[in-house]
Amino acid sequence: MLLDAPAAVVGALVASGVRLEYPNGAAGKLRALDVARIELRGGSSLGLSGPSGSGKTSLLHVLAGIAAPSAGRVMWDGVDIAALGEGARDVWRRTRVGFVFQDFHLVDGMSVLQNVLLPCRFDSIRIEPGRLAHARQLVSAVGLPDPDRRVERLSRGERQRAAIARALVREPRILLADEPTASLDAATAEAIATLLTGLSRASGATLVVASHDERLLSRLDARLRLAGGRIEEAG
Amino acid sequence: MNPLPLVWADLRARGAGILALVLLVAFAVAMGVAVSATERGLRRASADAARPFDLLVGMPGSPTQLVLAGVYLQPTALPLLPPETLPGLSREKGAAWVSPLGFGDSWRGSPIVGVAPELAIDGGRRPVAEGRNFEKLDEAVVGARVKAALGDTIEPSHGIGQDDDDGDAHVHHGTHYTVVGRMAPTGGPWDRAILVPIESVWAIHGFGTGHAAEPERIGAPWDADAPGVPAVAVNVRDVASAYVIRSKYRTGGTTAVFPAEVLAGLFATLGDVGAVLRVFAIAAQALVVASVLMVVLVAIAARRNLIAILRALGAPRIFVFLLVWSEVAAILVAAGAVGLALGLCLAQGVAAWADRSLGLALPGTLGSDEFLLALASAGAGLVAAVLPAASAYRRSVAEGLRSA
């Protein structure tokens, strides 16, 4: 399956023969994913749709290197992350991927800015001034006026905005989002969709979104519909 | 990498629970620290108090009782020595000086002890801090902490700890002493004592002065028929003399003991008790550290989602390890510091009690042993926290995210 032009620039994906299986007691193995091929041009956007349990999140986890596939290759910019060890996948993910979760998963007790800067603390003791300035710009860009506000005092929409800023703080080439608008009201979901797609385009990152939200999916360059862990439809 | 902002946020978020944990561990550390500091202080203070007494001679009985009465001035009814014992001891060539110890009277709670003049100045090794030594029957030298000034008059009462306001039934009417000197501090019960000539004690109780020919004279030698005393302190010229005199006065109806030897026996017993207490304190700390680790494991279980999210964001193994371990470290280090402070307070409390009840000046301070104890407790916890911290990374990230 070909989406846009063949991968050549950063953030380009070629995944083939990807299977993800889990032990399932006496029944042997449960196949959660069986994807023949996905190709995605760097800087483009892809939506993953399908009913609950269709494999959207599993595919997102495989693409992020969070889960190692049982078989197949997941090539990002020519690097097969499925062949990497866990530690190497952590490094790859840290340096190339931003992740937005459905329930935001911000750390209570910390400010917006501290949450946004969290991924920067994984490999440096002090935050560089340039990174700090970038984080402040991001907080402003996602529409949060007070970077020092504790996240538990934010509305759900504001929390998702902070989460998007956190995903972008390391300037990732790949931005993955799992149901980023699912727990938001319609107006907020619309605003978040605009923000997510706008910022990813502005940064040049490849965006892959798993979602039920048609308005969000319609903003993306391409869409794959999954069912039973397989690609049912591409468009 | 720097997990400290996360650690701090987590500690703040679970403030009450964390505070309870810190206090729990701190109390255990404080117990160990206080036991150690008190035992050390007790040994030193009691040894200091016994230092001027090379040898004590009394009637056969409990050597511990003799030492408690003679060295620590504990009110104990000791039988009187035969009259010939004191003159005999004062004639011993190996004795540098001897001093009878006559107890039984007091003034405002301070025991009045009849002694020879040499004892007030430890044979010249410890001159009086103020004034001079007593030279007459009606003169007294007070201990460093007796609330009486030079020139004050002291009217003795019979018995120890009697309040003069109870009435005057116990007061020795017509007898008084004038304070002429103050002893240098000893750090022991003698700081609360009032030292008077033994001759005056005998005279008050109607036994004469022990110097029939010169009733006003004080000090050795005494008459062969001088009144009996409950104990005699002997300061020897050398070690060999000490053993000779002890051997001689262990027969013939008297006993002689080295206070240091008796104390060594007491210390051995106290040491055993101290060791048991320390074992209990360490066991308590081990239990608390174990409970801390349990709490850490529970906390890890509760924070698996956060750990999964951090890992999804790319947190390396060492970051996750440091996050969990630093939190345990912060709890234990805080508990160690608070425990040391609490232990110091406890040790000072015990020192104040020992001062009031025993007259022993315990230092009530912490030494290297106590710091090492606190460090060892915290260190053991930090080492033990490595396992749960390392295990925090093992769970599948995808699984953690699904339950997040």
Your description of this structure?
The complex is a heterodimer of chains A (about 240) and B (about 400). Chain A has helices spanning about 55-65, 85-95, 110-115, 130-140, 155-170, 185-205, 215, and strands spanning about 1-5, 15-25, 30-40, 45-50, 70-75, 80, 95-100, 175-180, 205-210, 220-225, 230-235. The longest helix of chain A has 18 residues, at about 185-205. In chain A, α6 links the parallel β8 (about 175-180) and β9. With about 240 residues, chain A is of the alpha/beta class. A six-stranded mixed β-sheet of chain A has the order 7-8-9-4-10-11, with helices on both faces. Chain A has a five-stranded mixed β-sheet with strand order 1-3-2-5-6. Chain B has about 400 residues and is an alpha+beta fold. Chain B folds into two domains: about 5-45 and about 265-400, no CATH class; about 55-255, no CATH class. Chain B is built from 13 helices and eleven strands. Chain B has helices spanning about 5-15, 15-50, 65-70, 85-90, 115-120, 200-205, 240-250, 260-300, 305-310, 315-360, 370-385, 385-390, 395-400; strands at about 55-60, 95-105, 110-115, 130, 140, 155, 155-160, 175-180, 195, 230-235, 255. In chain B, strands 1, 2, 3, 4, 5, 6, 7, 8, 9, 10 and 11 form an eleven-stranded mixed β-sheet that branches. In chain B, a hairpin with a 2-residue loop joins β2 (about 95-105) and β3 (about 110-115). In chain B, α1 packs across α10, α2 (about 15-50) runs antiparallel to α8 (about 260-300) and α2 (about 15-50) runs antiparallel to α11. The longest helix of chain B is centred in the C-terminal third of the chain and has 44 residues, at about 260-300. Chain B starts with a helix and ends with a helix. The relative contact order of chain B is 0.19.
pLDDT averaged residue by residue of chain B: 81
The arrangement of helices and strands of chain A along the chain is EEEEHEEHEHHHEHEHEE
**Number of contiguous helices of chain A:** 7
Spans of chain B with pLDDT under 50 lasting ≥5 residues?
A: 162-169
Q: Which word captures the global form of chain B? A: elongated
Poorly predicted parts of chain A:
1-8
Radius of gyration of chain A: 17 Å
Distance between the first and last residues' Cα of chain A: 10 Å
Largest sheet report of chain A: 6 strands, mixed
Radius of gyration of chain B: 31 Å
Query: Total helix count of chain B?
Result: 13
Specify the overall morphology of chain A. Answer: globular
Domains of chain B (count): 2
**Strand line-up of the largest beta sheet of chain A:** 7-8-9-4-10-11
Helix content range of chain A: 25-40%
